[in-house]
Amino acid sequence: MTALLEIENLRVSFPTASGRVEVVKGLSLSLGRERLGIVGESGSGKSMTGRAILRLIRRPGRQQADRMVFDGIDLQARTERGMRQLRGARISMIMQDPKFSLNPVMTVGDQIAEALVTHERLPRRDVRARVIEMLHSVRIHDPERVMDLYPHEVSGGMGQRIMIAMMLIPRPDLLIADEPTSALDVSVQAQVLDLIDELVREKGMALILISHDLDLVARYCDRILVMHAGEVVGACAARDLHKASHPYTRGLLAAVPRMEETREELPVLDRSAWGGT
Amino acid sequence: MGWNMSVTAISLQNLDVSYGTTKVVQGVNIEVAEGESFALVGESGSGKSTILRAIAGLAPDWTGAISVLGAARGHQVDRDFATRCQMVFQDPYGSLHPRKTVDAVLSEPLLVHGFGNRSARVAEMLAAVGLDQRFRFRFPHQLSGGQRQRVAIARALMLEPKVMLLDEPTSALDVSVQAEILNLLKKLRRQQGLTYLMVTHNLPVVSFMCDRMAIMQKGRVVEIAPATALHDGSFTDPYSQSLYAASGGNPDRKDQP
């Protein structure tokens, strides 16, 4: 399998009063058309990794890598304009909270259509048909009505499905989902993830799922990277997660309450052991 | 169990709560025994947080009967009530005053209720929630999410209430920090004989923290089940079963039919 995305030695840094701080310290990965999970606590650099792939690290933050190639395209050599052609069309990203990532003064239909016409020239009738078809595929039952609603008129779960529709309508090759369900309820969470999973399989996309929820990532991914303090501390196949050997991964796993909880106390991470936060 | 299960800590009878003309909670009957830890679970908009708000006096438009530790609650602000029952909110980033130090936040309830010996009580409470004394004169923005939630718990405990209302106390936190806060809540309950009424949508948290739970849907309680129902999914109501399935069931018992 040829790699769709290859990254070598990615570094992201931000300036602080006491010099530049690296939040991603030399991450390397190679991704085929598969589902990769990145897990870690807040501040472990997992979201920054996702953003760096799209070159979305804003000044004064800085990103550099020895190699960052997506489908034969050198991402680092691209101009800003060249990146805009990739973002959305070839690589797209689902953000955490639909409340903050949808435009509040634009109807749902217009926003989804905008994502499409930015990258493709289509007659207006076809645009509408594609939007309706896409809303159907994210299981919104009456797309004609929903298209004319504003984001504040839809629920969180529906908002996130609209986000997914918007991200998938240009038919990207790589989807980056940054905590796509942490703002949602459990019952809706499963629906949204099943939907992403189904669409990813159907269209043969690659998926990077970023989350702090180990169980969730294990359920929806093939391969997992565990990040801590900007570094990858463990990589394994999703089904082997429970056999992970790194003490940090083990600590995270043990800290999650189980459905059948018999422990009187949950083990907590000894942060001093990693000189952590 | 060391406590007397027959004493009722929280009793809700035929509770209806409205926001304006919309009825969001309908006909809820719940009895929580003293020393018990009881969970309200369900999806957003099912009315679980509204029940806590009604008990705390933040949603005054209710009918039915609410009583805490045998004393009925009225619709007005009730000073004595505050010393018996306190609430911890979901988001520690939003529930602490950004321009008040930890010391000021913890002293305020004592000042309002005319308790003396404030300095010593604040120091003692910081120790009880596992915060070092050096955090005492810091502002919320100088604390991490977990530390802030510890301050919020400390503030709720300052008046030594016997009943705590917990509204998703860990859903804004990472798993590792969540474990610390859950352990703290469990320890405090054991040490101080507290009663918890806790809202959550995380079923494994219920399994760790609670004795019983009420499953809510569209403002009504559809089922009251013991926490052990989470071990094998022995719920009777179809909605509870679907919620359990959506949470992934019990992977430790997946191999059994």
- Global Rg of chain B: 18 Å
* SSE class of chain A: alpha/beta
Overall residue-averaged pLDDT value of chain A: 86
Q: How are helices and strands ordered from N to C of chain A?
A: EEEHEEEHEHHHHHEHEHEEH
Helix content of chain A: 25-40%
Strand content of chain B: 25-35%
| Spans of at least 5 consecutive residues with low confidence of chain A | none
Q: Which strand order does the major sheet of chain A show?
A: 7-8-9-3-10-11
Q: How many beta strands in the DSSP annotation of chain B? A: 10
Question: Uncertain segments of chain B of ≥5 residues (pLDDT<50)?
Answer: 1-5
Strand and helix map with partners:
The complex is a heterodimer of chains A (277) and B (257).
Chain A lengths: L4 E12 L2 E13 L3 E5 L6 H8 L8 E3 L2 E4 L2 E2 L5 H7 L4 E4 L3 H4 L6 H10 L6 H14 L5 H5 L8 H13 L5 E5 L7 H18 L2 E6 L2 H7 L2 E6 L2 E7 L9 H9 L22
Parallel strand pairs in A: 3-9, 3-10, 7-8, 8-9
Antiparallel strand pairs in A: 1-2, 1-4, 1-5, 5-6, 10-11
Helix pairs in contact in A: 4-5, 4-7, 5-7, 7-8
Chain B lengths: L7 E12 L2 E12 L3 E5 L6 H9 L5 E7 L2 E2 L6 H6 E4 L13 H11 L5 H11 L16 H13 L5 E5 L7 H18 L2 E5 L3 H7 L2 E6 L2 E7 L2 H4 L5 H9 L11
Parallel strand pairs in B: 3-8, 3-9, 6-7, 7-8
Antiparallel strand pairs in B: 1-2, 1-4, 4-5, 9-10
